[in-house]
Amino acid sequence: MPVSLLQDSSLLAVNVGSSSTRAVLFDVVEGQYRFIASGQARSTADAPFKDASIGVNQAILRLQTVTGKTFLDQDNQLITPMQSDGSGVDAFAATLSAGPVLRAIVVGLLSDVSLESARRLAETAYLQVVETFGLNDQRKSDEQIDAILRARPDVIILAGGTDGGASRSVQKILEAVGLACYLMPEEKRPPVLFAGNQSLTKSIKESLKSLTPSLHFSPNIRPSLDTEDLAPASRELAQVFAGIRKRQIPGVENLATWTGGHLLPTAYAEGRIVRFLSQMSGASRGILGVDIGTTAAVIAAGFNGKLTLGVYPQYGLGDNLPGLLRHTQLDDILRWLHLDIAPSVVRDYLYQVSLYPGTIPVTKEDHAIGYAISRQAIYLAMQAAKRNFPPEASFLRKDLLPLFEPILAGGGVLGDAPTPGQSLLLLLDALQPVGITSIILDQNNLLPLLGAAAEYNQLLPVQVLESGAFMSLGTVVSVISSAAHGTPVLRARLTYADGNDIRSEVKFGGLEIMPLGIGQTARLTLQPMHRSDIGNGPGRNAALQVVGGVLGVVIDARGRPLVLPEDPVRRRELFKKWLWSVGG
């Protein structure tokens, strides 16, 4: 286990992504942990460098320049613990998302039981399921073996059988896996994770240990037909991922050594902090974390300490971008544009950015296309993740999101937006939250690093989250209504601390801002009209204390789900109006 941080200890955390590498320093200021500074460099994990350590060293050196501190010695090795002259740090944490998407084979018994659970397990890491095998697979043994060899898997996930249940059926399916691994060149054999019937552990060790570079075991993800528990297997899969990256990418081994062997996948680390926050809150509403990057779109939802984590490389904004059109139509991207841009231009943009994922948008057309693609990618990821939310999620309607408080969002496209209003509108369009929630922007991409830092000190992430290192975009009231467009659906009154107030009658289809400064509090009174719902039930009023953000209090009365006009001219005019409303 990592060494626990003591009070007044400093921590250096690094995130290695596909397009950039960030180094962040956390330290104690006036008795509280704070985000001190960050340094950023282009990622060197991929071609032409193919050495993650180059980008890591450059990011740390830039952090040294900003802080005036020294973290690396003359051999570019980490100085730890902190020395008497002030150089070095007391602890180091790292997360990693760089590298190609890993190809996974999932093996189980029943398609709607263990195979489905194994698929959800695969979605907690940067994996693409390329082949599945179950009890109902009609292929002969030699055909199954050929399919495994053709799939060229980077990892194999084995599940199936409740604890103390079926064993003969599972062993029969595993025979094809063992034979296929035997036929592979030794250097191409994938690691294997077994998360099925625990009574089979000994026999699987005996049959597969010599046929895989590493064999991993976790508690059964489906210990009974009615119970699913992915958390232990997800932790083990995170270690499998880190082990593969050590072999694939030079420099990762050294990075893992600095962490004491606790290098974490970026998405897994973000999931950890979301689960941690949901445990602390104890609220009936969930906590939602959203990250859109070049490698993948990540959705992490915590409900009373239970995590649902979805990692979707197919919706990433990097070299997989052209593949987005395998999951959606070009028209679905075009509908988010507020400018009249030809479909061919949007298609060319997809391929161009996939070749140069670090490209910075220059023209207003590039910005518009980039945000349209991001909206659709987040929307698709959210719809995929929603299917896996547990029964305890507070759904108003099954076709909508459950209630969340707060929503934490990060990723380059959000943090680099020209205005906070554009980031907020992108999230409102893509996520379409319901009820009353605050939306917080992780503009410094700290969430995964805080998840990794929690390995050392659980106080650190809490204090950093409360320190103002994140940007509150404001409190959002999302109205569900079946009223006609232009019909008044909500009366809102915001009473300030000095007794003054402002009032607004919001019509269906409208998006309005009620000003409330960052950190200021006010009393918000809401009166739905025409049986509209703001999260308490149709027509039910609400009165609550709200805290201001960059955009104050936002009333989104455009409806849930958001229905856009079919006429492209009318649609673009609406988007321009909404952008103007949020200061975009």
Overview of the structural elements:
With 584 residues, the protein is an alpha/beta fold. Helices cover 32% and strands 24% of the residues. It contains 16 helices and 22 strands. The protein has helices at residues 52-67, 114-122, 141-151, 168-183, 201-208, 231-248, 252-258, 266-281, 330-334, 343-355, 364-386, 412-415, 420-431, 447-453, 459-465, 568-581, and strands spanning 11-16, 20-29, 32-42, 91-96, 102-107, 127-133, 155-158, 192-194, 215-217, 264-265, 286-292, 297-303, 306-312, 404-410, 435-442, 471-478, 488-496, 501-507, 511-514, 521-528, 542-547, 553-556. The strands form 4 sheets. An 8-stranded mixed sheet has the order 13-12-11-14-15-16-22-19, with helices on both faces. It has a 5-stranded mixed sheet with strand order 3-2-1-4-10, sandwiched between helices. A hairpin with a 2-residue loop joins strand 12 (297-303) and strand 13. Helix 3 packs across helix 4 (168-183), helix 8 (266-281) crosses helix 14 and helix 11 packs parallel to helix 13 (420-431). The longest helix has 23 residues, at 364-386. The two termini are 47 Å apart.
Structure summary:
With 584 residues, this protein is α/β, with parallel strands linked by helices. It has helices at residues 52-67, 114-122, 141-151, 168-183, 201-208, 231-248, 252-258, 266-281, 330-334, 343-355, 364-386, 412-415, 420-431, 447-453, 459-465, 568-581; strands spanning 11-16, 20-29, 32-42, 91-96, 102-107, 127-133, 155-158, 192-194, 215-217, 264-265, 286-292, 297-303, 306-312, 404-410, 435-442, 471-478, 488-496, 501-507, 511-514, 521-528, 542-547, 553-556.
